[in-house]
Amino acid sequence: MSFYEDKVLIANMNKKGIYLFKNRDNKINMEYYNQKEGHRSISICKDAYEEFDLAIENEKINLIYQDRNNYLKLLSINGFNIDEINLPKEKLSKVYEIKLNISSGIKNIFYLIPKFSEKGVFEIYHYISIDGKWKKSKVEDLMISKFLNPIKVLNDKDSILLFFYYKNQICLKVFDIDSLKWKETIKLTDNSEKLYIDVIKDERYIHLAYSKYVDQNLSIKYKKYTYKDGSLIEVKDKTVSNKGNTTHPTLILENDKIWVAWKDSLGLKSSFSKDEGETFSNIYLWKMSKASKYIRYDYRENENNASFKLNSSFGTIYPYISFIGFGELKDVEEITRENR
Question: How many whole angstroms separate alpha carbon 161 and alpha carbon 148?
Answer without folding.
Answer: 19
